[in-house]
């Protein structure tokens, strides 16, 4: 939690404000804004690549939540007991087939110890996840057949996303009022239920008790940075895209503070909800909370669902939990898809593309669905985790670092501070000026270096990924970053100039069309010369 708050204050909030002000000032998406320094347009392409990777596998996570949601529409959750065709002899649960707690088992310490011993025992929820939902294969290269129910839920996910976005931000803006607020209702219901359970206080103590030795672990700081980048959406291009639809004089500084703090508070609040239930589960199993706590997919689809089976009316709590996950996931997916669509429309910019934006949205959704099909096979979970760990991890911090360097040092911090002042009516606070120029890039660089030094290959439970799959992972990670130098070289070569220095200088210089999109906002040094015609951005925004 300490690294999380430090990353929030010195990286999360400043970068969030930087991206909002960046997109709002130019009223352009993650590609168009690089008129500020055309040589760095590769950063925008890198953001698009990252958003593409995340959009592909993130909707698979949503579709699994859909699947669990549908499977919760029953009198007894299917992962409650062990006498199903997919269960193994190692399966042991604390809930009987009739849905009642096996008190004789739960009250016998020696038997409970044997039941919860993870080296010998697997829970019904774990076997349901591995052998029924995933039907997991033994190797990442062994794809096997497509799991049709998961494929159907993936189709539902993409249809829902498209229907909410087919009219752009006009439709998604209305939907987000529900998807962004209703999860708070569900969280509060689960929180009230959780803290009233026996053992909940033990889970909350485990959640709040610091493990100071972890502060020296670079992976913890890297995870904190990843969580900040994921939860706030930094370096995806989504913040720039959504901010581009703001009114020019909107107070995005206020928005940055409110949204960032609310986001952080929600994360902490959700931790109380999760760990109160896990504490209850640990109390029933008579084991430490650390024995039942998990991370990643294991927490959302194994540990927490297993804890829900111990609650009265467990299907109700399961429906609420997975409905909340679906809404949270859809909110993120809206932003990812809108980022890609807006970037494509801005880049091509023809009248036909602008008039038929719905067709572009549909095309992106169809391509995303098709690319997600391999993740619904028996080896899908291996690929999903590979993409999650490599495709959008350290590339996010590299993109953010280069964006700070470009805006602050290539374009010039004084000019950008004046741009923000012209837009908001006041300059950025001193703290943000210092963070943008020095603190945020430095912290990001240190985290990147130490993450590389302490790098450990990805594993999934006991499965060790083969070398060729790790090579694919690194290729995905580099595919977004490599856009930056490739486009920079291309731009320098194509720029006018007799010498390399002149070409470099011209490639870095802001485009004449850089600035506020609407003519009425182009004042001061952006005021058009006499007889100057409006540029394409004016016509597009109008």
TrEMBL record:
One of its GO terms (biological process) is amino acid import across plasma membrane. It is found in: Membrane. The chain crosses the membrane at residues 6-34, 46-70, 146-166, 175-195, 228-245, 257-282, 316-337, 358-384, 390-413, 434-455, 467-490. It is a multi-pass membrane protein. SUPFAM superfamilies: SNF-like. Na(+) binds at residues 231, 263, 328. InterPro entries: Na/ntran_symport, SNS_sf. Keywords: Disulfide bond, Membrane, Metal-binding, Sodium, Transmembrane, Transmembrane helix, Transport. GO terms for molecular function: amino acid:sodium symporter activity; metal ion binding. Pfam families: SNF. GO terms for cellular component: plasma membrane. Disulfide bonds join 82-91. It comes from the Eukaryota. This is Solute carrier family 6 member 9. The lineage of its organism: Eukaryota, Metazoa, Chordata, Craniata, Vertebrata.
């Amino acid at each position: 939690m300490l690294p999380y708050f430090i990353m929030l204050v010195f990286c999360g909030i400043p970068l969030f404000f930087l991206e909002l002000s960046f997109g709002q000032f130019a009223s352009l998406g993650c590609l168009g804004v690089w008129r500020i320094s055309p040589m760095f347009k590769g950063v925008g392409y890198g953001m698009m690549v990252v958003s593409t990777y995340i959009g592909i596998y993130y909707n698979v996570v949503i579709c699994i939540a859909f699947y669990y949601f549908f499977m919760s529409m029953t009198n007894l959750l299917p992962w409650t007991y062990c006498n199903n065709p997919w269960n193994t002899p190692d399966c042991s649960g604390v809930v009987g087939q009739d849905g009642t707690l096996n008190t004789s088992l739960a009250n016998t310490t020696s038997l409970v110890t044997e039941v919860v011993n993870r080296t010998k025992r697997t829970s019904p929820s774990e076997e349901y996840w591995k052998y029924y939902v995933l039907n997991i294969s033994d190797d990442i290269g062994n794809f096997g057949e497509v799991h049709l129910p998961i494929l159907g839920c993936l189709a539902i996910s993409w249809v829902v996303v498209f229907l909410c976005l087919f009219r752009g931000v006009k439709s998604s803006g209305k939907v987000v009022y529900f998807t962004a607020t209703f999860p708070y209702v569900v969280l509060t219901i689960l929180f009230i239920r959780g803290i009233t359970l026996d053992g909940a206080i033990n889970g909350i103590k485990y959640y709040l008790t610091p493990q100071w030795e972890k502060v020296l672990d670079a992976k913890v700081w890297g995870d904190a940075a990843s969580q900040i980048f994921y939860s706030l959406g930094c370096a995806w291009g989504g913040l720039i895209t959504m901010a581009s639809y703001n009114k020019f004089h909107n107070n995005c500084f206020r928005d940055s503070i409110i949204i960032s703090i609310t986001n952080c508070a929600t994360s902490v609040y959700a931790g109380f909800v999760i760990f109160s239930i896990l504490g209850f589960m640990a109390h029933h199993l008579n084991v430490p909370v650390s024995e039942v706590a998990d991370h990643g997919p294991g927490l959302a689809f194994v540990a927490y669902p297993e804890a829900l089976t111990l609650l009265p009316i467990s299907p109700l709590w399961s429906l609420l939990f997975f409905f909340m996950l679906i809404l949270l996931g859809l909110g993120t997916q809206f932003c990812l898809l809108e980022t890609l669509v807006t970037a494509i429309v801005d880049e091509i910019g023809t009248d036909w593309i602008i008039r038929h934006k719905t067709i572009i949205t549909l095309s992106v959704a169809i391509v995303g669905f098709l690319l997600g099909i391999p993740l619904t096979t028996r080896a899908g979970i291996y690929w999903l985790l590979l993409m999650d760990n490599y495709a959008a991890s350290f590339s996010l911090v590299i993109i953010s670092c280069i964006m700070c360097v470009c805006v602050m040092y290539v374009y010039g911090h004084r000019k950008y501070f004046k741009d923000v002042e012209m837009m908001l009516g006041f300059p950025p606070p001193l703290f943000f000026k210092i963070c943008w120029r020095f603190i945020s890039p430095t912290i990001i660089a240190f985290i990147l270096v130490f993450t590389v030094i302490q790098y450990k290959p990805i594993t999934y439970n006991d499965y060790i990924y083969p070398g060729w799959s790790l090579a694919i992972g690194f290729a995905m990670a580099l595919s977004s970053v490599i856009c930056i130098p490739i486009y920079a070289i291309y731009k320098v070569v194509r720029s006018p100039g007799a010498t390399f220095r002149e070409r470099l200088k011209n490639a870095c210089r802001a485009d004449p069309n850089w600035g506020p999109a609407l003519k009425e906002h182009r004042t001061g040094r952006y005021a058009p010369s006499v007889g100057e015609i409006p540029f394409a951005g004016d016509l597009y925004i109008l």
